User: Fold these one by one.
Assistant:
Number 1:
Amino acid sequence: MPDSDPAPSQGRLCVIMNLGSGHRDRAHIEAEIVARLKPRFAAFEIRKTARGGDLIQMARKAAEDGFDIVVAAGGDGTQSAVAGALAGTDVTMGVLPGGTFNYFARDLGVGEEIDDALDTILDARIATIDVGRVENLVFLNNVSLGAYPHILKTRETIYRRWGRSRIAAYWSVLVALRRLRRPMKLTARVNGGSRQFTTALVFVARSAYQLDAFGLEGAEAIRAGKFAVLVARARQPVPLMRSALRLAFGMSAKNSDFDLLITDELTIETPKQRQLIAHDGEKTVMAAPLNLKVWHDALRVLLPADGRNKTKDGRT
């Protein structure tokens, strides 16, 4: 993650705000963003949408309109969409967390709360970071196949009924896994070799913070520019639920629950021609086989100028 010059304090900044993220007082948050950022930049604008599908085009339009910094205000899905529009360009991305887990904000150390993240934007350095890519889709935290995309479907139903919360998210895991019926058969091609697996879950991680939080191995490999690919050994609902519960309480271990592959490029072949995947909390159907690659130094981001991590637990 090489550093470059300090972030411009009098440049042009645009905030892309996802009104569908989180459940906090959006009017208050918007007022705080305007009050703190508008006086500090030569040009400032907030562009809002309640449609997640609009985010990529909005971020691209902001870059085309000449903004130096485009800030994503929302959860991990919002951050991923904006990053996908800005990766490979000279436009710098800022992060204002507004979702349930905010893994990307935690991984960068920019702050889990709006106040801290605004502090980062106002006193920042620019660094380039690696991102993941599956075909032409950019992801920041993870891509998964098998059980997890179905967990997201269940989560959406639970959120609509009970509202967004971490408890509701964890409950959706158990409900979805209880309904799991059939494991996947797949081939993973890595470094010129291939391995066959029968599994209920494949998790391709790009967030070191997320693996640390779950007590899983692979975080150091991610910091070194690799994927940590975790293939669940469980094939049926009950053992997979046990693994999920161990993860929730930080008791999982690679040797008991997962096979671990370390690589910066892999291909996953499945019997299905079209495969449902989850990526940073969103779902997409993609044509198989799936080609995944780490895109090195692809994205310019704002980080705290003093180098200190603003997450609550201090993890980097």
Number 2:
Amino acid sequence: MEMKHIQHVFFDLDHTLWDFEKNSDLAFKKVFDKQNITIDLTSFLEIYRPLNHQYWKLYREEKVTKEELRYQRLKKSFDAVNFTISDDLIDVIAIEYVEFMPDFNHLFEHTFEILDYLKEKYQLHIITNGFEEIQTKKMQSSNILHYFKEVITSDSVGVKKPNPKVFNFALEVANAKNENSIMIGDNVEADIQGAIDVGMHAIHFNFIGENVIDSRFPSIKSLLELKQYL
């Protein structure tokens, strides 16, 4: 089922092209080693990952600030593993974690192959809720920045996906129309519903195999499956 009339392809970055979980784990290992934090990293990450998802949802909903997100996800994780830590050290970890993230550049399988395929047919762009100060560095480190004409961050717009202002701003910047644009992302709420709400097409990158069945958009488990649609 090829989608006709598409001219602009917008990608989410984290969890869609850039392997956030793998790179995040490596960044934490580097921080913990540097700060001589001796708790078991695997146990910490089992607590941190779901907390991080919860706080990103609150952040998207404008219920916590960026600073609260960075502090609370760490504080609650350390508390859960019974590790006593000062607020000053939490602040250091939060800063170094963000600084170290772009040092790691793991991408999802077939990222280069699908971007090489798509760049010949479409204009490619990024729409991300990630922090503006590190998203470009991530893309430079993983050698994918050159594929994209426009990179739109929620920081630059002042609101976050799924707010329609983000998508409308992205369409305007890219000189694109909603009917000839498609959004590809992992988050049904932020990426897919947000795009559909402004009249864009959407494809859900369902890499974790969630039970998502919705007639309004296709769902794929591998980036290579995009060739069936684009």
Number 3:
Amino acid sequence: MDLSRAAAAALDDADPLAAFRARFTGVDDGLYLDGNSLGRLPVETPAAVARVVKQEWGRGLVGSWSSWVEQARRIGDLLADGVLGARPGEVLVSDTTSVDLYKLLVAGADARPGRDVLVCCADDFPTDRYIVAGVAASRGMTVREVDAHIDTGLDLDVLAAALDERVAVVVLSQVAYRSGALVDIAEVTALARDSGALVLWDLSHAAGAVPAELTTAGADLAVGCTYKYLNGGPGAPAFLYVRSELQEQLRQPIWGWFGARDQFAMGPSYDPADGVDRFGVGTPPVLAMAAVEVGARITAEAGIERLAAKGRALTELVVALADAWLTGYGVTVASPREAPRRGSHVSLAHPQAWQLTQALVDRGVVPDFRTPDRLRLGPAPLYTRFVDVWDAMDRLRTVLAEGAHTSYPTERARVT
């Protein structure tokens, strides 16, 4: 593999997604490799939000609810078709990822009466594990946390050993938040189905960068955020997915009026709506939804397969440069090396990863840090160039060669 900057520039020249970079703000202000935490602002988003503020709210006032009330399903269908590989009427934009996870976990557990075990991954994102623990505690259930390698992810044989007739729901992430390790949705779904359990997927570190193909995989349930690779903005509302065949069997625990069959009848008792609408709760955040719709449309236009292909190529470059330049400084690749087993981010392990992160930020590179000693690099296929990756890795090499990171305090010193 040619590791010259000229070779990286040639990849940019041949990139079929290159034109999308101009549709985001601030792309020339430093090297941003944290798109897996918060995506960039699309150029179209301020005007889209302003239109809702000035025209729909400012002039239409309450009359604009005739269009706002359809937002959750409209954007959901856009995500279903253009990003998630799902069918119309299976995705709803609603609440936060945490709330959606809670709703679907409780609904799934209720749909498996007599089963008293919830399964999750010991190395999964903390909120997911906390919610599983909280639901189990409130229902008198048991949690089985399956071990996963911090770098290479979940072993399906280990998962299979944890599945039996007591398991109601399995909660897993498609892409591990720390290492980027990718799990095969179809394989896990088949394993769980053999034991009679449902699987609830967290797609937060995958949606917009990795194909989910939920229908093809036969997936049961999923949730995910919209502010990472989908570029919906900080705190943007999340999405949930429920397979059509399951929707009438499930009743979620938060009985809000946006999940009711005839919400404006203001009836005396809760009667869940048909289809995916029953998983709504309260009044949606209309302004934030406008921003989500812009990001979702750009992602769908780019095409998830093209985004995934570029994401694999970008992360392959990170791995190759780390091997060539950084090994002698004690840096190791802490993600799966095989591109098909990786999402769109790579973690590098180093005892002073926190200090390296701060040194890079001061030199115009934005990565992020994950415990215990991981420097995480998340190139976003929509706007990150190959030369951006090359330049960021070159600056990291320089920091290490000069020992510049050693002048920074440890994370513990920073906190105290």
Number 4:
Amino acid sequence: MEPRLNPFASPVLGKVFKHIIAAAKELEDSTLPASTQELVNLRASQINGCGFCTDMHFKDALQLGESAERLNLVASWREATRFTEAERAALELTEEATRIADAAGGVPNEVWANAAEHYDEDQLAALVGAITLINAFNRGNVVLQMPAGDYQPGQFG
């Protein structure tokens, strides 16, 4: 399967993706745990049906030392007993923000308040940034029909 367009061969889209990647790199310096960022990336990618990003973030999370068991349970995190309360709050915020069009009024105050109980202001900012960026990546990759399965951790440096 070939993508509809190679984003890195396109002068226009290549620049756009490079800026999104640069923004994502800023999150590496945040105090939001990398494992939480990968759980967020994986869950949003599942919701958005982005096979490329689901593959990528599953593998990147494994590379960080995350267990396959927990990663397999991300889609059903509400019923799973393997996530901390902070991770559950991040996953809930991710779902609400990713499905923003499904709820009039956007993300409920209760969801935000729950996340704010577990994360400081800088971590919340990083969480919002991570959710925003993965949704942008997902949408671009879904439109382009980027194939999944061949990603190797670190291939984008």
